[in-house]
Design brief:
This protein is an all-alpha fold and about 400 residues long. It has 17 helices and no strands. Helix 12 runs antiparallel to helix 17 and helix 14 runs antiparallel to helix 17.
Length: about 400
């Protein structure tokens, strides 16, 4: 690559292409769970494994991928991992039963592990190369891109399901993987392996108290976020009779508002303030779920999803910026992987909770039980942010 004095903007497109592979698989699936269950004759408690399997694989793989990326360089991990995403897409497209589909989701989880740690490692390497340790703008682009894909996920998933069946939600991984692979091959630098002391793949030596607290935040916030997205969309389809496409459009404001909030607040230094507001927003959304029922008007459903977009936009960017600043620069890839790991732990707990509250039937009673659990979780998230004052020292711009 040609030397540049500032951040190499040519890296942004492959960074984004790799980092969005995981969230696109999350949001598209949210509207495909019910059709998949109908196709295979499986209840919600069984299709929940499609969520859990990806997040278990990703939770295990993210810190390992991050550690290898810190040691070997982003390119060496990014390219084979992206190829695995394409293979998983083919397998899922032709899955004859739920078990094979779960295997495909596991492979998707492993394949998407490298994208986000690679992006954070390249940002840190560019900061070291240029001497500019304030990549707030690039971090904002990364967060907005991830959320933009999340915006497109539910309606795109709905369209794919309505016009091509649920299998197209797996097939779309093939062109996405090909594009990400080509961009990574073209633009990712051919870095040499770093000379580092021997450490285990699961290396926790770089952890510090503020970073651990940030990981706790990730568990709590992702638990609420994923429980809402997957629980609410299933309720819209099963209890309210919405099609997959209609359910995707109803939850569209969650991600649309999130993108707008991230864009407006991306360069703000007030990470603690953002997280407190985000926790309060999640608490309000979960409380509003208790007011929903089979006769709730459309405007009320949309009001819930619009309000949910505020914490969505504030939390993801704030957590990302916090990890970038709190992590040891030499292990930022592994630290970024652990952020995703703890986030996915929240998603795994979410899948278990959804299976418990809905069981074999998705109904309003289950939605209200879910809401009560999420109110308690949101209160815990709010408490952590109010009590912890370590974020006051962070500057993001």
């Amino acid at each position: 690559m040609t030397a540049t004095t500032g951040f190499d903007r040519r890296l942004i497109t492959p960074l984004v292409a790799g980092a969005v592979l995981n969230p696109v698989n999350t949001t598209i699936l949210s509207v495909a769970l019910v059709p998949i269950g109908v196709s295979f004759g499986e209840p919600p408690s069984a299709t929940a494994w499609l969520i859990t399997s990806l997040y278990v694989a990703t939770a295990i793989g993210q810190p390992v991928a991050g550690r290898l990326i810190d040691t070997c360089g982003p390119r060496r991990l990014f390219l084979p991992a992206t190829a695995l995403v394409g293979i998983a897409g083919v397998l899922g497209t032709f899955a004859p039963n739920l078990a094979v589909l779960v295997v495909a989701r596991v492979l998707l989880g492993l394949g998407t592990c490298a994208g986000y740690p690679a992006a954070m490692r390249l940002l840190r390497d560019e900061a070291d190369r240029t001497g500019d340790d304030s990549p707030g703008g690039v971090l904002t682009i990364l967060a907005i891109s991830t959320q933009t894909v999340s915006v497109l996920g539910p309606p795109l998933g709905g369209l794919l399901v309505d016009f091509g069946g649920w299998r197209t939600t797996l097939a779309i991984n093939v062109p996405l993987a090909l594009a990400a692979f080509a961009l990574g091959w073209r633009y990712f630098p051919r870095s040499r392996p770093r000379m580092r002391e021997r450490r285990p793949l699961f290396d926790l030596s770089g952890l510090n108290t503020p970073l651990v607290i940030t990981y706790v935040r990730a568990v709590l916030s992702y638990l609420v976020s994923y429980s809402f997205i997957f629980g609410f969309t299933q309720w819209l389809q099963a209890e309210r009779g919405f099609s997959a496409g209609q359910a995707g459009l109803v939850v569209l404001p969650v991600f649309g508002v999130g993108v707008a909030v991230s864009a407006l607040t991306g360069r703000s230094e007030a990470l603690r303030g953002k997280l407190i507001v985000a926790a309060a927003g999640q608490l309000a959304v979960c409380a509003l779920l208790l007011a929903l029922g089979t006769s709730s008007p459309l405007w009320m459903l949309l009001a819930v999803t619009v309000l949910s977009g505020v914490p969505q936009g504030l939390t993801s960017l704030a957590l990302q910026n916090a990890v970038y600043r709190q992590a040891d620069p030499a292990s930022v890839g592994a630290s970024a992987g652990l952020l995703r790991t703890f986030g996915y732990l929240g998603a795994i707990v979410s899948a278990v909770v959804l299976g418990l509250v809905f069981g074999d039937t998705v109904d309003t009673r289950g939605l209200h039980e879910l809401a009560i659990f999420l109110v308690v979780t949101s209160l815990a998230f709010l408490l952590v942010n109010v009590v912890d004052r370590s974020l006051k020292a962070i500057r993001t711009s």
